[in-house]
Design goal:
About 40% of the residues lie in helices and about 20% in strands. Helix 3 packs parallel to helix 8 and helix 9 packs across helix 15. The chain folds into two domains: about 250 residues, Cytochrome Bc1 Complex, Chain A, domain 1, CATH 3.30.830; about 190 residues, Metalloenzyme, LuxS/M16 peptidase-like (Cytochrome Bc1 Complex, Chain A, domain 1). It is built from 15 helices and 13 strands. The radius of gyration is 23 Å and the shape is globular. The strands form two sheets. The chain has an eight-stranded mixed beta sheet with strand order 1-6-7-5-8-4-3-2, sandwiched between helices. A five-stranded mixed beta sheet has the order 9-13-10-12-11, sandwiched between helices. By secondary structure, it is of the alpha+beta class.
């Protein structure tokens, strides 16, 4: 089980670990029922899209390089949708989805998937919860049957919830409470996004996890886990003509639900400079800097996301970029520095910089040097080579990152579940080519300023 912040989704190469499954489900060798006409069909850039009458969105992309099919189902609900005091509910339910369901015992999930040489797991983010199975191409209907069954027939029990709560608490201890940098990032995230759900941890606080009840999980499942709140993605050695009869067979009978309105993920920017320090069990000091910026899914200024992505590459796009050249090699101020920003998101994001200074360089000096470098990009000259390199790096990184069927499915699912066009990456080269140096500098002047900055100093604990 994994927790994925949005900035990691496209760059992450999924580690496909086996989970659980059951012999009580039918083999995929049974005969599929005839296809039923769906509400809408579309083929764009070699990608098939349709929507069933119950609202389930289906995306199929054929990639026959290997005889496998990656099946993913994305639910449009994540930690951002959770009410205050109920943090971690989406992640908790993700764990429970591998427990008993009608016709399948939780102990059999892994045995069944492993029997056919497959893998299965899930991940939770701010914006969605997703489940996946990778199976040989002739066994992909098994994944459809599993996912359709537990969308409707999950059996949640008090004993299983109590046991899993202890597992999740231990997961939090290992990932966050016993990890100094993770603890610091949690503090930083709350500082930088105080009025947005993204400022709260995906896994929830320990108090929130302790307070979650079986009834909370049951209500969350009944509210959000429905076909009209899901995207089904299949990528691999499969065609729409092969897949759609099975999709209809297993999903047509599921009924849609009345969905609540999802919360807004807009975040006030330019709130004034915010600074704090935290003592952690680290050996060397470091700093986190975050600017509140838009993404492609923001309500306003979404197009600035393209310019900010190119700005990021000018500053941190490799050994010849500004940070590496000026701050590490020429001025010898930093040991390391890096930017994290994803243009893909359902709402506003953070443009985050993490750095560790050289011995004898204070965190204040490191912060000032980084801000000066950002200002030089915004107000100085950007060369033709820097612009071209940024465009090339972003496109080539996307191509290499989406080479596997797993990451192709992740890209399609993430875009669809966040309301973005699934051809977003196909149109990316043209979008980036239209961004000028002036656009990059305008975005830098608008967002990467001190009055829009939150900084956290991470310092070693006093002896």
């Amino acid at each position: 089980m994994k927790l994925l912040p949005m900035s990691a989704i496209i760059a992450t190469s999924l580690s496909l670990m086996a989970c659980q499954s059951s012999t009580a489900l039918q083999s995929s060798k049974t005969t599929a029922t005839p296809a039923i006409t769906a509400a809408k069909q579309d083929r764009t850039q070699g990608i098939y899209q349709t929507k069933l009458n119950n609202g389930l969105r289906v995306i199929i992309k054929t990639d026959a390089r290997a005889p496998i099919v990656m099946t993913q189902i994305w639910y449009d609900v994540g930690s951002s949708d959770e009410p205050m005091g109920k943090g971690g509910m989406s992640h908790f339910l993700e764990h429970m989805m591998f427990k008993d369901a009608k016709g399948i015992n939780h102990d059999d999930y892994q045995r069944l998937i492993s029997h056919f040489g497959g893998t299965t797991n899930a991940f939770t983010s701010f914006d969605y919860t997703a489940y996946y199975e990778s199976l040989p191409a002739n066994q992909f209907p098994l994944a459809l049957q599993i996912e359709a069954n537990r969308m409707k027939n999950l059996l949640l029990t008090a004993d299983e919830a109590a046991t899993e709560k202890q597992v999740i608490k231990e997961e939090r201890r290992l990932r966050t409470d016993d990890n100094p940098l993770a603890k610091a990032y949690e503090i930083f995230n709350q500082m930088a996004q105080p009025d947005a759900p993204q400022g709260r941890p995906i896994i929830g606080s320990m108090d929130d996890i302790d307070g979650l009840s079986l009834e909370d999980l049951q209500n969350w499942y009944r509210t959000w886990y429905a076909p009209n709140n899901a995207v089904l993605v299949l990528v691999g050695d499969v065609t729409p003509d092969q897949a759609m009869p099975w999709v209809h067979k297993y999903f047509d009978a599921l009924t849609p639900s009345t969905l609540p309105e999802r919360v807004s993920l807009s975040q006030p920017s330019h709130r004034g400079y915010q600074n704090a320090a935290t003592e952690q069990a680290v050996q060397v000091p470091s700093l986190l800097m975050g600017f509140n910026v838009p993404s492609l899914g923001s309500k306003h200024n979404a197009q600035d996301a393209y310019a900010l992505s190119l700005f990021s590459d000018v500053a941190d796009g490799g050994l010849s970029a500004r940070f590496e050249t000026n701050l590490i090699r020429k001025k010898n101020l930093l040991n390391s520095v890096g930017i994290s920003y994803s243009m893909v998101g359902r709402g506003d994001q953070l443009f985050t910089i993490q750095a560790t200074p050289k011995d004898g360089v204070s965190l204040e000096q490191a912060e000032a040097a980084i801000l000066e470098e950002l200002q030089n990009i915004s107000q100085g000259e950007i060369s033709d080579d820097e612009l071209k390199r940024g465009q090339t790096n972003l496109v080539s990184g996307l191509i290499f990152g989406n080479d596997s069927v797993a990451n192709q499915a992740v890209s399609l699912g993430a875009l669809a579940s966040q309301g973005l066009p699934i051809d977003t990456y196909d149109t990316l080269p043209a979008k980036l080519a239209a961004i000028s140096k002036a656009d990059i500098q305008r975005a830098g002047k608008a967002y990467l300023t001190r009055d829009n900055l939150t900084t956290l100093y991470i310092v070693p604990q006093a002896k």
